[in-house]
Amino acid sequence: MLKISTRKTLSALASAALCCSMAVAQNGNWLTSGGDVQRSGWNKDEKILNKSNVGSMKLLWKTKTDVYPHGLHTLMDPLVVQNVPTASGPKEMVYILGVGDTLYAFDAKAGTIVWQQKFKYEALPPMRPPEGAPPRPAQVLPTDTRHYNFLNPGGSTDVPVIGEPDAKGVRPIYVLDGGGNLHILSDVTGEDLKPVIKTGATSKFALQLWNNSIIYAGRGGIYSVDLASGKVTPSKGFGGGGGLWGRRGPVITSDGVVWTTTGDGIYNPSKPDNLVLGNSVVGFELKDGAWMVKDWFTPPNWDWLRRRDLDPNNTPTSFMFNGKEYMAASGKECRLYLLDPKNMGGPDHHEPLLKTPLICNEAVDFASAGSWGAVSSYLDAKGTRWVLVPFWGPKHSGIKFPIENTPATKEGGVAAFRLVDKGGKPAYEPVWVSRDMFRGEPPIVANGVVYTWGSGDDTQQVWPDIGLNFDSSNRAALSNHVTVYALDAETGKELWSSKDTITSFNHFTGITVANGKVYMSSYDGNVYCFGL
Fold first, then answer.
1. Least packed by Cβ within 10 Å: which of 222, 261, 344, 478?
2. Which of 5-14, 44-53, 101-110, 319-328 has the least mean pLDDT?
3. For residue 316, is it within any domain?
4. What's the pTM value of the predicted model, to 2 decimals?
5. DSSP code of residue 301
6. pLDDT tens for residues 443-480?
7. 278 is a domain residue
8. DSSP string, 399-465
9. Number of structural domains, the chain?
């Protein structure tokens, strides 16, 4: 009896130790674009890198993949999992989806590719034009995918999402391929854990995992896939308006409403069963078996914006402030809005709670200025709420920050605001603007440090000799290279940069910071890992 009791005790202790180790390991994971369903870009659990040691970072490894560009796209945001139970023992792994429909799994320590999974599928039929519009001519694609239109590059450009582990520690990776097929793969081997689910809709940007469903912005609205039944639920009553954007994908607020931004397009809410909501932030709720529009915010100057292609194309972020949930949003016009998810724009959908003066885009440029990608937010050690806005081009001369770092922004940067209480109401307080970087991109915040990058992406779309042209090779030939920056989160002061280490640019990808390492990729198919 004593032996059995001892065995039970030891078994219980071992199980407890395993649970504890898994709980600790989970703190070092980065399982979705932006880090959470709020798309905050805040890694609350990073403890290794800090303001004192980040200046000592160096290149730990560089690995070349076989990805081939589609348009300007190659590799998406890296995701990170600790203690993956591989055949050779627990490993920290990095997962990156390539536009050529290949998921790569890297050993985070060595940088070697452990496995890669290639997806094959039949392309989806083209979308039907809106009612009353002339039929679209047949599209003849170039044989070299580098020439594809950078707005519609084809292939897989979404960012996967990773779920919780099973009893053996195996996690599912959810990937949507370029044919609209949802794959559920083992993070250990890359093999299918469940049969492929045909959704009938692709997504340009990141997936969400919420209430045992995969949720994403796809063709014509929001889609969800119930992981227990495989049932696909589409949108209903949404007539479009410029396509669904936001690089980190949709945001989910605490009430389960799914929010996304719409691109440059017409705004016409006159038909409740066919809402056309271009240039807007739109929320969808699951109702009567479909995703229905619940609420939206549209800037009052939406038509002025539409005529200049200045849509609010960023992924917003939601957060709590003084016990209430808010949302921060921006876009190519380059203002920062504060919105109430319970009443997005007042009775006419046009009134935000707050809007800042223009942060950038004094030249009203639709291609190489404005705020792009995603807004980030975090709480500092004192409990102060911060909101970070990436932007392209120079800072607007009409807005002043107490701290303006040098060299002054010419090609892009990041602007930081505090959210403060003034007379019982929230207010944005400008704090700092970063040094110049060639196209400021969506930041990640971790342990008092802001990590961002200049993409080096030549964003010109119009040339004097050929006019407006969407052949991506034009831009690729003129692009520069990625430079990663680590900035002091309180002041924006540069603490470290990758300088000329990365030799190629990137387009619409993301940076990841986890467990003392910083991951970045480039157009030429290389993955870089920096650390101490």
1. 478
2. 5-14
3. yes
4. 0.92
5. T
6. 999 999 999 999 999 999 988 888 888 999 999 999 99
7. yes
8. ---SEE-SSPPSSEEEEEEEEEEETTEEEEEEEEE----SSB---EEETTEEEEEE-------EETT
9. 1
